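SAMPLE LOG
Freezer: B-3
Tube label: C17
Construct: single chain, 182 aa
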Amino acid sequence: MAKLWLTALALLSSSAVWAGPKVEFETTLGNFTVKLNDEKAPISSANFLKYVEDGSYVGSQFHRIIPGFMAQGGGYDKDMNQLKTYAPIKNEASNGLANNTATIAMARTANPNSATRQFFINLTDNNFLDYNQRPPGYAVFGQVVEGFSVIQTMAKQPTHSVGRMGDVPQTPIVITKATLIK
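STRUCTURE (predicted):
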């Protein structure tokens, strides 16, 4: 009984952390929904929503999938052409949110303040990416709250290299719709 109560309490506190807007993604592999934390990650959340609202995530693909690590998308079309971006944003990795299983974070280059449109979803706890473990860290700004099994299925797809990029799904996993749920 105590274990059940603790599980219920964890779920309640988890839903409180992810109290911001929701975005539903439809992909060629299935649907999933992300809930953002625009209180702790206002810059990353607003940036992400800009790409959702302008429709430019539609037609992009999950171009880098590493089983037991993460699924990265949003930056390339199905033919691996890089998509246009808005200006880079400030890294918010020090916001206290952890790169836990099913969280979504901003992808970036070695420059901490280089994130634009690419994001990744953690397939497992990747706390070595957190600010407190590896400054400057990778900014978590939300969590998959429905359809995480679709993300897990992505990790089971065969991958190959395309040019200099590895871990690219052989069959593109394309975002066909991204909808802000108000």
